[in-house]
Amino acid sequence: MRIAVAGGTGVVGRHAVEAARAAGHEVVVLSRSSGADVLTGAGLAERLQGADAVIDVTNTTTLSAAKAVKFFETATRNLLAAESRAGVAHHVALSIVGIDGIDASYYAGKLAQERAVAAGSVPFTIARAGQFHEFAGQLLSGMSGPVAVLPKLLMRPVAAREVGEHLVRVAEGAPAGRASDLVGPRDEVLADVARRQLAFDGVRRRVLGVRLPGAYGRGLASGSLRGGADALQGRITFDEWLRGDDHLPS
Protein backbone atom coordinates (compact mmCIF):
# COMPACT_ATOMS: atom_id res chain seq x y z
CA MET A 1 0.00 0.00 0.00
CA ARG A 2 0.91 3.64 -0.33
CA ILE A 3 0.16 5.20 3.08
CA ALA A 4 0.39 8.91 3.82
CA VAL A 5 0.98 9.94 7.44
CA ALA A 6 -0.13 13.47 8.32
CA GLY A 7 2.01 14.61 11.23
CA GLY A 8 4.53 11.90 10.41
CA THR A 9 7.38 13.58 12.28
CA GLY A 10 5.55 13.82 15.62
CA VAL A 11 5.40 11.68 18.75
CA VAL A 12 3.07 9.05 17.25
CA GLY A 13 3.63 9.86 13.59
CA ARG A 14 7.26 8.78 13.52
CA HIS A 15 6.28 5.39 14.93
CA ALA A 16 3.47 5.02 12.39
CA VAL A 17 5.94 5.79 9.61
CA GLU A 18 8.40 3.25 10.98
CA ALA A 19 5.73 0.57 11.39
CA ALA A 20 4.33 1.12 7.89
CA ARG A 21 7.77 0.85 6.31
CA ALA A 22 8.55 -2.26 8.35
CA ALA A 23 5.35 -3.81 6.99
CA GLY A 24 6.55 -3.17 3.43
CA HIS A 25 4.34 -0.19 2.60
CA GLU A 26 5.37 2.90 0.68
CA VAL A 27 5.13 5.85 3.05
CA VAL A 28 4.53 9.51 2.30
CA VAL A 29 5.11 11.92 5.20
CA LEU A 30 2.82 14.94 5.26
CA SER A 31 4.45 17.74 7.24
CA ARG A 32 5.48 21.33 6.70
CA SER A 33 9.09 20.17 6.36
CA SER A 34 8.06 17.92 3.47
CA GLY A 35 6.11 20.70 1.75
CA ALA A 36 2.61 19.78 2.91
CA ASP A 37 0.65 22.06 5.25
CA VAL A 38 -2.66 20.78 6.65
CA LEU A 39 -3.69 24.25 7.84
CA THR A 40 -3.40 25.90 4.42
CA GLY A 41 -3.82 22.83 2.22
CA ALA A 42 -0.62 23.65 0.36
CA GLY A 43 1.14 20.62 -1.08
CA LEU A 44 -1.46 18.08 0.02
CA ALA A 45 -2.86 17.28 -3.43
CA GLU A 46 0.58 16.55 -4.86
CA ARG A 47 1.70 14.41 -1.94
CA LEU A 48 -1.50 12.36 -1.88
CA GLN A 49 -1.42 11.22 -5.48
CA GLY A 50 -1.68 7.43 -5.56
CA ALA A 51 -2.21 7.09 -1.80
CA ASP A 52 -4.42 4.24 -0.65
CA ALA A 53 -4.84 5.45 2.94
CA VAL A 54 -4.10 8.47 5.11
CA ILE A 55 -3.27 8.25 8.81
CA ASP A 56 -3.92 11.60 10.51
CA VAL A 57 -1.91 12.13 13.70
CA THR A 58 -1.57 15.90 13.40
CA ASN A 59 -1.72 17.75 16.69
CA THR A 60 -1.71 21.12 18.37
CA THR A 61 -0.74 22.11 21.91
CA THR A 62 -3.47 24.21 23.50
CA LEU A 63 -6.01 24.12 26.32
CA SER A 64 -8.28 26.56 24.47
CA ALA A 65 -11.37 24.82 23.12
CA ALA A 66 -11.78 27.46 20.40
CA LYS A 67 -8.18 27.09 19.19
CA ALA A 68 -8.33 23.30 19.31
CA VAL A 69 -11.60 23.17 17.38
CA LYS A 70 -10.29 25.57 14.74
CA PHE A 71 -7.08 23.58 14.28
CA PHE A 72 -8.65 20.14 13.98
CA GLU A 73 -11.59 21.25 11.83
CA THR A 74 -9.29 23.12 9.45
CA ALA A 75 -6.74 20.32 9.20
CA THR A 76 -9.45 17.69 8.71
CA ARG A 77 -11.30 19.73 6.10
CA ASN A 78 -8.14 20.28 4.06
CA LEU A 79 -7.02 16.66 4.31
CA LEU A 80 -10.41 15.24 3.33
CA ALA A 81 -10.75 17.62 0.38
CA ALA A 82 -7.32 16.62 -0.95
CA GLU A 83 -8.02 12.94 -0.31
CA SER A 84 -11.32 13.12 -2.17
CA ARG A 85 -9.63 14.63 -5.20
CA ALA A 86 -6.85 12.04 -5.08
CA GLY A 87 -9.22 9.09 -4.69
CA VAL A 88 -7.93 8.00 -1.27
CA ALA A 89 -10.02 5.07 -0.04
CA HIS A 90 -9.43 5.18 3.72
CA HIS A 91 -8.93 8.01 6.20
CA VAL A 92 -7.71 6.95 9.66
CA ALA A 93 -7.93 9.54 12.44
CA LEU A 94 -6.31 9.16 15.85
CA SER A 95 -8.47 10.30 18.77
CA ILE A 96 -8.63 9.76 22.54
CA VAL A 97 -10.55 7.18 24.57
CA GLY A 98 -13.37 8.26 26.85
CA ILE A 99 -13.78 11.88 25.73
CA ASP A 100 -17.48 11.79 24.77
CA GLY A 101 -18.56 13.52 27.98
CA ILE A 102 -15.65 16.00 28.03
CA ASP A 103 -16.50 18.43 25.24
CA ALA A 104 -14.18 21.08 26.67
CA SER A 105 -10.62 22.38 26.36
CA TYR A 106 -8.37 20.30 24.05
CA TYR A 107 -10.89 17.46 23.92
CA ALA A 108 -13.45 19.74 22.27
CA GLY A 109 -11.07 19.87 19.31
CA LYS A 110 -10.75 16.10 19.12
CA LEU A 111 -14.54 15.66 19.23
CA ALA A 112 -14.89 18.29 16.49
CA GLN A 113 -12.33 16.36 14.46
CA GLU A 114 -14.30 13.14 14.86
CA ARG A 115 -17.50 14.86 13.73
CA ALA A 116 -15.77 16.36 10.69
CA VAL A 117 -14.32 12.99 9.69
CA ALA A 118 -17.69 11.27 10.05
CA ALA A 119 -19.40 13.98 7.97
CA GLY A 120 -16.82 13.80 5.18
CA SER A 121 -17.00 11.91 1.90
CA VAL A 122 -13.90 9.75 2.43
CA PRO A 123 -14.47 6.29 4.00
CA PHE A 124 -12.98 6.43 7.49
CA THR A 125 -11.98 4.78 10.71
CA ILE A 126 -11.58 6.68 13.99
CA ALA A 127 -9.04 4.96 16.24
CA ARG A 128 -9.06 6.11 19.85
CA ALA A 129 -6.11 5.53 22.19
CA GLY A 130 -5.18 6.32 25.77
CA GLN A 131 -2.77 9.05 26.80
CA PHE A 132 0.77 8.29 25.72
CA HIS A 133 3.60 7.43 28.11
CA GLU A 134 5.22 10.61 26.78
CA PHE A 135 2.37 12.79 28.10
CA ALA A 136 3.73 13.42 31.59
CA GLY A 137 7.12 14.48 30.25
CA GLN A 138 5.48 16.85 27.77
CA LEU A 139 3.62 18.58 30.58
CA LEU A 140 6.70 18.72 32.83
CA SER A 141 8.85 20.22 30.08
CA GLY A 142 6.36 23.03 29.64
CA MET A 143 6.64 24.13 33.28
CA SER A 144 9.43 25.87 35.12
CA GLY A 145 10.31 26.09 38.79
CA PRO A 146 10.78 23.57 41.60
CA VAL A 147 7.09 22.59 41.74
CA ALA A 148 5.03 21.10 38.92
CA VAL A 149 1.25 21.36 39.28
CA LEU A 150 -0.58 18.73 37.24
CA PRO A 151 -4.30 18.03 36.91
CA LYS A 152 -5.81 15.05 38.67
CA LEU A 153 -6.00 12.60 35.78
CA LEU A 154 -6.86 8.92 35.98
CA MET A 155 -5.45 7.29 32.88
CA ARG A 156 -4.24 4.08 31.32
CA PRO A 157 -1.19 5.26 29.35
CA VAL A 158 0.04 3.44 26.27
CA ALA A 159 3.32 3.57 24.37
CA ALA A 160 3.25 5.86 21.32
CA ARG A 161 5.12 3.12 19.44
CA GLU A 162 2.24 0.72 20.01
CA VAL A 163 -0.27 3.37 18.94
CA GLY A 164 1.64 3.90 15.69
CA GLU A 165 1.67 0.16 15.01
CA HIS A 166 -2.06 -0.03 15.78
CA LEU A 167 -2.85 2.78 13.35
CA VAL A 168 -1.02 1.01 10.53
CA ARG A 169 -3.00 -2.18 11.17
CA VAL A 170 -6.20 -0.14 11.05
CA ALA A 171 -5.13 1.51 7.79
CA GLU A 172 -4.41 -1.89 6.26
CA GLY A 173 -8.02 -2.95 6.86
CA ALA A 174 -11.29 -1.73 5.44
CA PRO A 175 -12.88 1.48 6.74
CA ALA A 176 -14.85 0.56 9.87
CA GLY A 177 -16.16 3.84 11.29
CA ARG A 178 -14.67 3.05 14.70
CA ALA A 179 -11.77 0.79 15.55
CA SER A 180 -11.35 -0.91 18.90
CA ASP A 181 -9.92 1.46 21.50
CA LEU A 182 -6.29 0.95 22.53
CA VAL A 183 -5.10 1.58 26.09
CA GLY A 184 -2.07 0.67 28.15
CA PRO A 185 -1.66 -2.36 30.40
CA ARG A 186 -2.03 -0.60 33.79
CA ASP A 187 -4.17 2.03 35.49
CA GLU A 188 -2.11 5.08 36.47
CA VAL A 189 -2.51 8.54 37.99
CA LEU A 190 -0.78 11.35 36.11
CA ALA A 191 0.96 12.87 39.16
CA ASP A 192 2.35 9.47 40.20
CA VAL A 193 3.65 8.84 36.69
CA ALA A 194 5.32 12.26 36.64
CA ARG A 195 7.03 11.61 39.98
CA ARG A 196 8.42 8.30 38.74
CA GLN A 197 9.71 9.92 35.58
CA LEU A 198 11.46 12.69 37.49
CA ALA A 199 13.00 10.17 39.88
CA PHE A 200 14.19 8.01 36.98
CA ASP A 201 15.72 11.06 35.28
CA GLY A 202 17.40 12.16 38.51
CA VAL A 203 15.46 15.43 38.67
CA ARG A 204 14.57 16.84 42.10
CA ARG A 205 11.19 18.43 41.69
CA ARG A 206 7.94 18.33 43.63
CA VAL A 207 4.74 17.31 41.83
CA LEU A 208 1.28 18.36 43.03
CA GLY A 209 -1.89 16.85 41.61
CA VAL A 210 -4.91 19.17 41.74
CA ARG A 211 -8.53 18.69 40.75
CA LEU A 212 -9.41 21.15 37.98
CA PRO A 213 -12.83 22.84 38.04
CA GLY A 214 -15.62 22.42 35.54
CA ALA A 215 -16.51 19.72 33.03
CA TYR A 216 -12.91 19.34 31.96
CA GLY A 217 -11.63 18.71 35.49
CA ARG A 218 -14.49 16.33 36.27
CA GLY A 219 -13.77 14.37 33.12
CA LEU A 220 -10.06 14.04 33.85
CA ALA A 221 -10.73 12.76 37.36
CA SER A 222 -13.64 10.50 36.44
CA GLY A 223 -11.65 7.57 35.09
CA SER A 224 -13.37 7.71 31.68
CA LEU A 225 -9.98 8.34 30.03
CA ARG A 226 -8.92 4.86 31.10
CA GLY A 227 -11.24 3.42 28.48
CA GLY A 228 -13.68 0.54 28.74
CA ALA A 229 -13.25 -3.12 29.58
CA ASP A 230 -13.45 -4.07 25.90
CA ALA A 231 -10.46 -1.95 24.84
CA LEU A 232 -7.36 -3.54 23.37
CA GLN A 233 -4.41 -3.44 25.77
CA GLY A 234 -0.85 -2.53 24.91
CA ARG A 235 2.05 -4.54 26.31
CA ILE A 236 4.55 -1.86 27.40
CA THR A 237 4.06 -0.47 30.91
CA PHE A 238 5.11 3.05 31.80
CA ASP A 239 8.09 1.82 33.83
CA GLU A 240 9.23 -0.43 30.99
CA TRP A 241 8.94 2.53 28.63
CA LEU A 242 11.09 4.64 30.99
CA ARG A 243 13.88 2.07 30.65
CA GLY A 244 13.53 1.83 26.87
CA ASP A 245 15.01 3.67 23.91
CA ASP A 246 11.88 5.75 23.23
CA HIS A 247 12.12 7.63 26.53
CA LEU A 248 13.91 10.96 26.56
CA PRO A 249 14.72 12.61 29.92
CA SER A 250 12.20 15.23 31.03
Going across the major beta sheet, what is the strand order? 2-1-3-4-5-8
User: How much is the radius of gyration in Å?
Assistant: 18 Å
Q: Taking all residues together, what is the mean pLDDT?
A: 95
- Major sheet summary line: 6 strands, parallel
SS strand fraction: 15-25%
How many strand units?
12
* N-to-C order of helices and strands: EHEHEHEHEHEEHEEEHEHEH
Amount of helix: 25-40%
The assigned structural class equals alpha/beta
Distance between the amino and carboxyl termini: 37 Å
The helix tally amounts to 9
**Could you list the spans in which at least 5 consecutive residues all have pLDDT below 50?**
none
Specify the oligomeric state: single chain
The general outline is globular
Report what the structure shows.
Helix 3 links the parallel strand 3 and strand 4. Helix 1 (13-22) packs across helix 6 and helix 3 (65-86) packs parallel to helix 4. The chain contains nine helices and twelve strands. The chain has helices spanning 13-22, 44-47, 65-86, 105-119, 135-141, 160-172, 190-201, 214-222, 238-242, and strands at residues 2-6, 26-30, 53-56, 90-96, 124-129, 147-151, 154-155, 177-178, 182-183, 188-189, 206-210, 232-233. The model has no long low-confidence stretch (mean pLDDT 95). By secondary structure, it is α/β, with parallel strands linked by helices. It has a six-stranded parallel β-sheet with strand order 2-1-3-4-5-8, with helices on both faces.
